[in-house]
Structures are given as C-alpha cells and as structure tokens.
Design a protein that fits this description.
With about 150 residues, the chain is an alpha+beta fold. It is built from two helices and ten strands; from the N terminus they run H-E-E-E-E-E-E-E-E-E-E-H. About 25% of the residues are buried.
C-alpha cells in the first residue's frame, strides 16, 4: 500500500510541474520571484516558488516587468491583442488593444492605445481608460487635453 501511495505522490508532483514545457525564472529587477512557464499549447503564465499558479498560462507573450510601466508587464493574448498584468498577477489593463503606446506620450502617466477597430484612446497610470478609444489618431493627439478635461467634469 505504501508503495502505491509513493507512486501516486510522485506522479502528482510530476503532473503539477510537468505540465509546462519551458520554465524560466523571471530575472527583471521589478519582477516578483516567479518562474515564467510555457504550456504544451504554447501559452505563457507564471508560477511562484511553491509551484502555485499566479498568472494563468493564457498569454502568447509576457514582457518584462517594469519595461513599460513600473511593476506591470505587457501581455499579448492569444487573440493578438495587448494589455497589462501587475506584479500580483492581476490583469490591470484588459487584453483588448491592438497596440499600447509608451507611457509618457502624450503626457507622463498617460499612454495612447489603439482599439481593434483602429481608433485611439488614452489609459492612465492606474490602467483606467480615461479617453475612450473612439477617435482618429491625429484628432486625439491635437485634442486630448480638452477630452481629458471634459471627462473630469
């Protein structure tokens, strides 16, 4: 009986860690102590030091933490769209944008986003869409301050 119990426990441990084809520790200075993992289906996620899943392996790509925004990582969904996760594993910006521009453009703590339909908006440093992605790019660039003020009212 003990023999079968040991075999079962060994098989269970292999299943938990064996479900991933690639495991790479995150080495970014802003990253938590997690391991980046890739499934057999080719999707990426993260596990903690105990093997607990902290970011579901549902992303085509997970960028470095802090590269685009402090303590966030840009993620690309299997749909090809982008969003952000934070260093707790929570999705801060949903994976709904065809492009997310760098923060600081147009202003510090703001980033322009392009929707799947090709229109533009702005997200803030908390991940909130402060100007909806319904504007042409040049119109938004020229009028974003007025649009932000209008939203504040």
């Amino acid at each position: 009986m003990k023999k079968y119990l040991l075999i079962f426990l060994a098989a269970s441990a292999t299943h938990v860690y064996g479900q991933y084809t690639v495991q790479k520790p995150l080495k970014d200075s802003n990253a938590p102590a997690w391991t980046l993992v890739k499934t057999g289906a080719g999707t990426w996620g993260c596990i903690d030091k105990d093997g607990k899943e902290v970011v579901k392996p549902i992303y085509e790509k997970i960028d470095r933490f802090g590269k685009h925004h402090s303590n966030w990582a840009l993620v690309k969904g299997i749909t090809g769209f982008y969003g952000f996760i934070d260093n707790s594993g929570k999705e801060i910006v949903p994976v709904i944008y065809s492009r997310i521009y760098a923060f600081g453009r147009p202003e510090k703590e703001l980033a322009m986003v392009r929707s799947v339909s090709g229109f533009y908006g702005i997200i803030d440093g908390s991940g909130k869409e402060v100007v909806p992605a319904v504007y042409e790019k040049e119109f938004l660039r020229s009028n974003y301050k007025a649009l932000l003020e209008k939203r504040a009212d």
